[in-house]
Amino acid sequence: MEDPRFLRTATYFSRPPCFIYVGVPMTSTAILIDGAFFLARFRKVYADRDVNDARAVAKTAFSMAIEHIKALDRPKEALYRIFFYDCAPMDKRFQRPISGEWIDYSTSPMAGFRRDLHDQLRRQRKMALRLGRLADRGGEWQLKRHVYAPLHNADMEWEDLRDEHFELDMRQTQVDMKIGIDIASLAHKRLVDQIVLVAGDADFIPAAKLARREGIDFILDPMWQGISNDLHEHIDGLQSVCPRPY
Hints:
Elements: H1 4-13, E1 29-34, H2 35-45, H3 54-71, E2 79-87, E3 93-95, E4 102-104, H4 109-122, E5 127-135, E6 141-143, H5 145-152, E7 166-168, E8 171-173, H6 175-188, E9 194-198, H7 205-213, E10 217-221, E11 237-238
Parallel strand pairs: 1-2, 1-9, 2-5, 9-10, 10-11
Antiparallel strand pairs: 3-4, 5-8, 6-7
């Protein structure tokens, strides 16, 4: 007579192995959008839309992500998440360079638009808002770009300068760092097999190299803006889905 303990042991070990899949299906795409770049190009490629309408801008960002999924011949379910990177609006007061008047940037139209935009983005499906900060560089003012030529050509005198000819010297910080960290996290954790980055500069190259070494298909969307030839070496593809400006 067979030992029942042996039968229980044999029955237990004769069961087929069970494999547990950890992660998401490997047909998953993350869309990363550099907000400052997106808004600058928005004015040129979506000329029929109001760039000051926060709801329209937020919906356009979402629809552009969906268009990328379609262009890549993937189902909508392949969209892992949309990451939108921007800076919280400035909330300080500064003294104007010519008149000496004080201006409160927290009540400016641009600050109001940014707050509305961030609120609308948070309401979008699968949208993750990543906020950096604006550094004011000590409240320094600088001439606007279009003022240099008239001054150089003597079409304008220094005495003609007014407050409107200057802009506060501000730089966004932490945004590039957050983009790089998210790309590294997505790649190392194998959360996606494809990343689409909406951006126009070369700051992303180190992160793109890391992602490609991890086997990620890395696509750049410059929204039809020209890029330098050497950038092609660091991406797997170039794709813009917004209307092409002429």
